[in-house]
Each structure stands twice: as structure tokens, then as C-alpha cells.
Specification:
single chain, alpha/beta, Rossmann fold, Arc Repressor Mutant, subunit A, 3 domains, five-stranded parallel beta sheet, five-stranded mixed beta sheet, elongated
Length: 384
């Protein structure tokens, strides 16, 4: 599934009216389905692709090294990577020897899919973290002590530098097992469009499921001269929601605050979005109606109304000072696109009233501008 253009929002679900950018390559379909079932419009732009090692000499060397000197602990991080390792060893006539070494080691599986791959190979894992998090794996190993122990780590497309350094700092002899690498996507267009949409304010949140994806997004923005703008957007307006603390590291290194679920899985990640985005939506009592302004749609008494970009820009400008008159000049400045005049404001207001289904929500103040018809009890006592 690739770059998903905005579509008519669903009236169902807590994410109705919001647009979420998804950067995942692996398990993207699962994440997208979870978001769409909750009403979100999804822009999918894979920031990476998984490719086998062009030169398998590193993997072969690591395999020989582990067969020659048995590991005490083996950490399997992904199902596709573990299967690829076993298949490669079989191709070198090292499969049986490798399985013997793995069977004699303390075998740790990062999650349920890799547990399945381990068992399919005729092995049995000793332990797997409930969170599917490498942070929990690291905590366990450091707690039990790894000084003088030989630890093999099946890498999953990234070097896991902090993880490996922590083990080595605790006295472990760490052997990295590189099976495949992350590479930039073959088609960079969807990623560019996601960056542009984020900077244009038409994406309400970005979801990240791997640190390499976050790094790739920032690197692409850097290549286009947009890194500073993207970082600013993620610091101020667009929440970055990460599946776990390791995924968040490249963003936090840029001073970007991230949101993470307590359980590092896709379902809890989506739940964070379901709580965060509606909480950010402005809620007003206007002309006897309850109005909730979402990313690209408006809830009026619970009914979802799709609003074009120009209309949303005007509505947000009016909602920043609810009940107060906003001049045509100010509204003109809020409209997207160059070369507009005050007639464009009048046309956009007319379309906005139609889209909201209740013209009385926006009042015309002759010779002055427009205002939201905030109910008297909610009108502020003084101008902000």
C-alpha cells in the first residue's frame, strides 16, 4: 500500500476527520487497517525497504565465528531475518552446525513472529519480552549479568548501536549477525509528498514503527533542504507517535518530543493517537451547535462535515478568536495560495458555510469582517 490521497472521512471512530502519516515498511498494512477502522485518513509513504545483503561475506563470517566458538546467548530480532540466516547457512552447508550451536545457547526471541520462526527451525526460545521491545531484552540481560559471556545479536537492518554498546560496556563479547539492510525506497515520491503534506499542515500526526524509518524521513528532508522546517513542524504542530523508545531516539536527538504507548505494539500505538488527536481538537458552542474542529473535517453536533483546505484555514483563523470579529485582511492572509483578493475570502466563506451545513455558524459583520457566532455564555469577556 502506497501514498494514500485524502478521501472522504468516515463518520465512525475517534480518528474521523484526522489524517495520519505512516512511514512503516514492515507491517504497514496492519497499522493502516487499525487506523482506518478508527476513521483516520492515512497517507502511507514507506521510508525504507528491506533488501538482502548484496555481499553476504559479513553474515558468512559471523556464522563461521559462532560455529567455531559457541555463543552463550543468541538474540533473534525478526522472523524474516532469522529465517534468512538459517537458509543462508544451509546454502553454505553450515545449517546443521549452526542449529546445533543455537540449540545449545540461551535463545531469546524479540516477539511472537520470531518465536514462530525459531520453532519452525526445530528450536525453542528460552524467553521473549511481552513488550516485543529490545529495551526489555537489554534490561533482562543487564540484570542477569553478561560479563564474560558471548552474545550473538541478529541485526534487523540497523546497527542497534546503543544496544550493542550497553552489552559491551557490561563486559559481553558481542557478535553482530547482519542478515539484511534497510535501504531508501525505490520510489521516493510518496515520502516527498508526505513531507510536503506535513509542512503544509494537512497531516495531523506521524506514526513511526522503527528508528531507521525516522532516520530516513529526516535524511530525505535534509536532502531537500527541508530538515529544519520538518523538525519545527514535529516540535510544534504535528505529534510524532512512536511504537517504543528505541524508535523514538532519532527524533528525540533533534529535540522532538514523542508520544509512546506503555506496551510497545501497534494496537496501543493507535490508541495513543485515538486519545491525543481528539484532545487537540478545538471545541466550541456556536449558534446553538457543538462544533469540534478536526484536522480536515468538522464535527457539528456529532455529524462529520468534510471541509476544503481554504475553508479549514478560515475556520481555524476564526476559532483562534471565537466570538470576535476577524477582518477580511486577516482572513485573506490565512488563505492558502498566492494572488488572492478579498473576493476570495467571500467565496471561501460561502463554501465553508455550505460545507458546515449551517450558515448561521459564521456571521458577517458589515464593513468589518466575520465572526464565529459563539453562544453568549461562551463569549470571552475581553479580547485575547
Amino acid at each position: 500500500m502506497h501514498d494514500t490521497a485524502p478521501s472522504e472521512p468516515s463518520e465512525q471512530g475517534p480518528l474521523a476527520g484526522f489524517t495520519v502519516g505512516v512511514t512503516a515498511a514492515r507491517r504497514a498494512e496492519e497499522l493502516i487497517a487499525l487506523l482506518q477502522r478508527r476513521g483516520a485518513v492515512v497517507r502511507h509513504a514507506p521510508a525504507l525497504r528491506i533488501v538482502p545483503l548484496a555481499d553476504d561475506s559479513e553474515l558468512r563470517s559471523a556464522t563461521h565465528e559462532l560455529i567455531g566458538k559457541a555463543p552463550d546467548i543468541v538474540i533473534a530480532t525478526t522472523a524474516v531475518g532469522f529465517r534468512g540466516w538459517i537458509e543462508a547457512a544451509d546454502g553454505w552447508d553450515l545449517g546443521e552446525a549452526l542449529l546445533q550451536r543455537l540449540d545449545g545457547a540461551e535463545l531469546l526471541a524479540r516477539g511472537p513472529k520470531v518465536k514462530g520462526a525459531i520453532r519452525a527451525a526445530g528450536l525453542r526460545e528460552k524467553w521473549s519480552p511481552a513488550s516485543e521491545s529490545m529495551a526489555e531484552v537489554l534490561d533482562r540481560l543487564l540484570a542477569q549479568g553478561v560479563a564474560g559471556r558471548r552474545v550473538a545479536v541478529q541485526l534487523h537492518g540497523e546497527p542497534l548501536t546503543g544496544f550493542v554498546e550497553a552489552l559491551r560496556g557490561a563486559g559481553a563479547d558481542v557478535i553482530g549477525v547482519p542478515v539484511y539492510r534497510w535501504m531508501p525506497p525505490e520510489d521516493i515520491g510518496p515520502l516527498d509528498r508526505l513531507i510536503d503534506a506535513t509542512l503544509a499542515g494537512s497531516v495531523d500526526a506521524l506514526a513511526f514503527t522503527s528508528a531507521p524509518a525516522a532516520t530516513s524521513l529526516l535524511a530525505r528532508a535534509e536532502t531537500r533542504g527541508l530538515r529544519a522546517d520538518l523538525v519545527a513542524a514535529l516540535r510544534q504542530d504535528v505529534p510524532a507517535v512512536c511504537v517504543g523508545p528505541v524508535t523514538a531516539l532519532p527524533l528525540q536527538a533533534q529535540g522532538i518530543d514523542t508520544l509512546q504507548p506503555e506496551r510497545f505494539r501497534l494496537g496501543p500505538l493507535v490508541q495513543v493517537l485515538c486519545e491525543e488527536l481528539p484532545a487537540r481538537a478545538a471545541e466550541l458552542s456556536v449558534a446553538g451547535h457543538q462544533v469540534r474542529i478536526r484536522g480536515r473535517a468538522v464535527l457539528v453536533d456529532g455529524a462529520l462535515h468534510s471541509v476544503p483546505p481554504a475553508g479549514m484555514a478560515l475556520l481555524r483563523a476564526l476559532a483562534r478568536r471565537p466570538g470576535w470579529v476577524v477582518s477580511r485582511a486577516e482572513l485573506l492572509a490565512a488563505l492558502p495560495g498566492p494572488g488572492r483578493d478579498e473576493h476570495a475570502v467571500e467565496a471561501a466563506v460561502a463554501r465553508l458555510r455550505t460545507a458546515l451545513g449551517s450558515p448561521a455558524l459564521i456571521q458577517t459583520v458589515v464593513k468589518r469582517g466575520y465572526r464565529l457566532a459563539v453562544d453568549p455564555a461562551r463569549t470571552p469577556d475581553s479580547a485575547p
